[in-house]
Amino acid sequence: MADEPVIVEVADGVAVVTLNRPEQLNAFSGPMGDQLGRAYAACDADDTVRAVVVTGTGRAFCAGADLEPAGDTFAAPTSDEFRASPVHPPAWDVRKPVLAAINGHAIGIGLTLAMQCDLRLVAEDAKLGFVHVRRGVIPDAHAHWTVPRAVGFARAADLLLTGRTFRGREAVELGLANRALPADEVLPATLEIARDIAMHTAPLSVALSKRLLWASPAL
User: Fold this and answer.
1) Which contiguous run of DSSP H or E holds residue 17?
2) Rounded Cα gap, residues 185 and 203, in angstroms
């Protein structure tokens, strides 16, 4: 378990999905993407799971793509089925609420993957950024759809076209996150919300409400 790039633990109706490459600040790799997708699919299929929390091991949520030489982050796909998202299914396709506990830095794909979640709690001092354009690539994981839905066109243009970095407190002001807290409070607060959902909501009502939210046009 300790060597796996993604760890899943289920208790009290809540699945905690942990990105687990702490020595690399949980940098995103091909195996991490594959395992995260499988974790989402398993949570979707498991009727005992009522909510999902995604977080990172150590002091970062996900510090971006692993760009180490000979890495497999951008390896050629092993099947003929093309997908624009590096994680399948994306969090919005999971029929249970998916909450991101952004316990530390979330850069590049670390932040775009969090934007696929339903709720986001973030560490006040976490460094965040859609830095792709400063690396010569375009924002990934459907960010051109998820970010404007959350913050509107003008703010999305500011964030996606400049690639600037900002802190967790500003993420709340922008509308990217629901709450900003001290880093050590992020996961406990997110788990409290997830357990409240698991205990006090009707699964079918939540699933349909989530589906309608994501299918509705952005205002």
Assistant:
1) strand 14-19
2) 27
Cβ atoms of 167 and 110 within 8 Å: the answer is no
The helix or strand, by DSSP H or E, that contains position 215, with its residue range, turns out to be: helix 203-215
How many Å apart are CA 194 and CA 184, to the nearest integer? 17
Distance CA 105, CA 17 (A): 17
Under 8 Å between Cβ of 171 and 128: yes
Contact 73, 90 (CB under 8 A): no
Q: What is the pTM of this model?
A: 0.92
- Residues 21/5, Cβ–Cβ less than 8 Å: yes
Cβ neighbours of residue 35 closer than 8 Å, sequence gap 6 or more: 4, 5, 6
Q: Give residue-wise pLDDT tens across range 85-114.
A: 789 999 999 999 999 999 999 999 999 999
> Are the CB atoms for 9 and 15 separated by under 8 Å?
yes
DSSP reduced 3-state for 97: coil
Distance from the Cα of residue 25 to its chain's centroid: 15
User: Are 19 and 54 contacting, i.e. CB atoms less than 8 angstroms apart?
Assistant: yes
Q: Amino acid letter at 163?
A: G
Q: Which long-range contacts (CB under 8 A, 24 or more apart) does 39-44 make?
A: 39/6, 39/8, 39/15, 40/87, 40/89, 40/90, 40/91, 40/93, 40/94, 40/98, 41/89, 42/8, 43/8, 43/15, 43/17, 43/94, 43/96, 44/89, 44/93, 44/94, 44/95, 44/96
